[in-house]
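Lab notebook: predicted structure, single chain.

Context: the supervisor wants predicted structures on file for every construct in the current expression panel, including those that have not yet been purified. This is the next one on the list. No modifications to the sequence; it matches the entry in the shared construct table.
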Amino acid sequence: MYEPYLPLAVLVGLLLLGASWWWQRRRQAAFPYRQVEALFTPAEQAFLAVLDEAVGDDYRVFGKVRIADVVQTLPLRDRRRYLVAQNRINAKHFDFAICRRDDLAVHAVVELNDRSHLQRHRQQRDRFVRAVCEAAQLRLVEIPAAARYSAAAVRDAVFGGRRPRHRAVEPSQALAPQCPDCQAPMVRRRARSGRHQGREFWACSDYPDCRALLDIDD
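Prediction complete. Output recorded below exactly as produced.
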């Protein structure tokens, strides 16, 4: 009784399948992207674990940081020269950036050099990065990729052979409250602009992951 409708159902199914396939192809052509499996390669992950140990609790390590996020292009009268200089750093990144935990000031950047850096175009890129860091007075640490790393050797390379010291805590800072949102210690800050310019306040030390603020009672 229902057999005459079977070919029509099959035809409708094929049409729907074809429409779905066409839509997926069209969307992929407009947005040709897909998520990578991991931010770091296995070799980079192994080194990151050692780097985290080497820098200690007073520093944070960030990965895949654009050079343009760490280095600024100086103002130039020639707009074309400025754009050329800016574009040269926009598309390049450092493997790792080491920042002070309290204010996220950049202490050094790290490049993990594997065998690909022996290639001619990579060597040209490395020379450019070294020149940029020298001009910006930014500490660049180059570590050869290896099967194993010594945390002590990495620490010496990052801090110039000197173990990082814990900075003395000011008396007012010793009484710093805990962040009400994430329980991290808070740090004393002073507003630099706006209607509260000059006023001191407590800010979470885990900024920018946490943006909690507290007033300081006079």
